[in-house]
């Protein structure tokens, strides 16, 4: 029976994996996690997808159990600033797209254009975000929308099983280091053996399978299954087992980031409950509000900008509050391992693959990988079927997200610097080029987006196409022959609902302080 697991690495990936496997298999699995105190964790990764709530639910945790310990806030959307032109912004919200007479409301919007903003016309969330509000009432009730929280939690479905059925209205933002600490306690309380040491050699047997990892001070650690959570180093999968890495650099050129953690009085400043991505001359800056500070960073391509210039731009963007914050310069490895599961080794996290953090997909990749690992866990034999299904699923998720991110740059209207001009001529995946041609005439739907599960529903693509403004879109011709009354009623109902909610919801900051 495969039930002895060694996890190398104690970042977000290592501890999410350890705690999820314990929640899934309890004492029937034996887990050792070894992490180095010499090699630091990446130190970023603070915004998530709305599906992350299934992770905490699986661990049996309520928001009040973990959010205060991790300085966590709600994220209702990604806000894109200046991607179209200076001063312009739009939201990609966590909110299900409405349909009227079989057409998505965005299609009706292209025809009717009640205002210049598709996001506030078609969704309720943008108005709530602009007002800095919580998606829960003071008594904890979720905003009034078609969503039965409890019934959904009872079903215990995985992320991919949920997709398309519902859209939960928010995700979380948290301090990565505090989450790792919280999950360390969760895991060790449930029996995970925690070793702080350096792994300096990976032993292979005569078949080329891993037989142990040698540590500096704790000797050799052995198991049946080895999980590589060593970050961009990918010490087990890419180095010891020699699995090739497929770079995405040709289509996604951002290869660097500089990050700052900026302490701020969030009570005074207030919390805009979203992650903001502000386009810059050679990339974009993220802004993530937490309860005690803001996390921010410039993601850029070294072909266009030096690390010194990136840091200077970031500090100017943040202002005087950044003066004492230490800069964390990061070199990103963009792409995926050809196979994330090889022999008796599974890589999870940055060791498996990574695309730039434009839509906060890193932790989603980890969550997805763990769900798939549990689903395909080897049992009493190593079956190629389980391994191949796992690898295919991980490949699909990363390739799908890659397409979605490339779309951001292709669709952005911004065209004022060499970096943005080159987005017009850079190679894009063939299938995406064809899909974009279709989307000019028929907005994305489940039949014409990337065909495998990758966490992004068709409405997400619509938001990017409509918000970025660089691609000419046409409403469906059938709408010209249709009665518009129902669509107009829907647009009016959204305005009414948004205006009602902004009057009664509490401020986001006030809501978190009462979770303590
Ligand atoms: P790391 O954090 O690098 O951890 C590696 C671990 O391996 C450490 O514990 C280290 O000590 C250990 N280790 C390494 N070598 C050895 C050794 N020889 N012996 C023992 N231990 C060893 N994701 C999101 O979802 N949302 C975001 O907003 C987001 N923003 C990001 C921004 C940037 C700039 C980057 C680069 C990534 C971002 N990500 C984001 C991705 C996210 O940060 C990662 O997916 C997540 O932190 C997981 O990292 P990890 O655990 O795989 O690696």
From TrEMBL:
Binding site for 7-chloro-L-tryptophan: 75
Binding site for L-tryptophan: 359
Gene3D superfamilies documented for this protein: FAD/NAD(P)-binding domain
UniProt keyword Nucleotidyltransferase present: no
Name of a matching Pfam family: Trp_halogenase
Record keyword DNA damage present: no
Record: residues binding FAD: 10-13, 199, 350, 363
Active site: 75
Listed name of the protein: Tryptophan halogenase
Species per Swiss-Prot/TrEMBL record: Streptomyces zhaozhouensis
């Amino acid at each position: 029976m495969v039930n002895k697991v060694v996890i190398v690495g104690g970042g977000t990936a290592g501890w999410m994996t350890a705690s999820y496997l314990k929640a899934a298999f309890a004492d029937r699995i034996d887990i050792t996690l070894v992490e180095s105190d010499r090699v630091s964790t990446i130190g970023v990764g603070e915004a998530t997808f709305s599906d992350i709530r299934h992770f905490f639910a699986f661990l049996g945790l309520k928001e009040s159990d973990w959010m205060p310990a991790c300085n966590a806030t709600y994220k209702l959307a990604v806000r894109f600033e200046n991607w179209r032109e200076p001063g312009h912004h739009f939201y990609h919200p966590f909110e299900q797209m409405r349909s009227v007479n079989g057409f998505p409301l965005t299609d009706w919007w292209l025809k009717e254009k009640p205002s210049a903003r598709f996001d506030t016309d078609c969704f309720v969330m943008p108005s709530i975000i602009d007002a800095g509000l919580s998606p829960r009432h003071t008594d904890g009730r979720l905003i009034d929308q078609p969503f039965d929280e409890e019934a959904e939690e009872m079903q215990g479905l995985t992320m991919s099983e949920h997709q398309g059925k519902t859209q939960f209205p928010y995700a979380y933002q948290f301090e990565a280091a505090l989450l790792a600490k919280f999950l360390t306690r969760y895991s060790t309380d449930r029996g995970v053996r925690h070793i702080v040491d350096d792994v300096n050699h990976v032993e292979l047997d005569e078949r080329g399978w891993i037989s142990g990892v040698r540590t500096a001070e704790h000797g050799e650690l052995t198991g049946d299954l080895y999980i590589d959570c060593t970050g961009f180093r990918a010490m087990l999968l890419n180095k010891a087992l020699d699995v090739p890495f497929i770079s995405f650099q040709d289509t996604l050129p951002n290869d660097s980031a500089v990050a700052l953690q900026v302490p701020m009085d969030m009570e005074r400043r207030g919390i805009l409950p979203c992650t903001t991505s502000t386009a810059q001359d050679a990339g974009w800056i993220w802004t993530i509000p937490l309860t005690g500070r803001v996390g921010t960073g410039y993601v850029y391509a070294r072909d266009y900008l030096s690390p010194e210039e990136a840091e200077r731009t970031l500090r100017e963007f943040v202002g005087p509050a950044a003066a004492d914050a230490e800069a964390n310069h990061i070199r990103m490895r963009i792409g995926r391992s050809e196979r994330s599961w090889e022999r008796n080794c599974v890589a999870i996290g940055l060791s498996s693959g990574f695309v730039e953090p434009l839509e906060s997909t890193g932790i989603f990749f980890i969550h997805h990988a763990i769900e798939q690992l549990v689903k395909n866990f080897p049992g009493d034999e190593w079956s190629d079927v389980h391994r191949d299904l796992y690898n295919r699923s991980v490949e699909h998720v990363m390739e799908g997200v890659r397409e979605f991110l490339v779309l951001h740059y292709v669709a952005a209207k911004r065209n004022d610097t060499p970096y943005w001009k080159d987005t017009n001529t850079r190679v894009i995946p063939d299938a995406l080029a064809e899909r974009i041609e279709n989307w000019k005439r028929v907005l994305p739907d489940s039949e014409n987006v990337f065909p495998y599960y990758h966490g992004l529903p068709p409405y997400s693509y619509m938001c990017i196409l409509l918000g970025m403004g660089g691609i000419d879109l046409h409403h469906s011709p059938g709408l010209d022959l249709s009665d518009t009354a129902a669509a107009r009623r829907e647009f009016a109902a959204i305005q009414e609902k948004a205006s009602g909610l902004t009057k009664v919801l509490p401020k986001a900051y006030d809501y978190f302080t009462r979770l303590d």
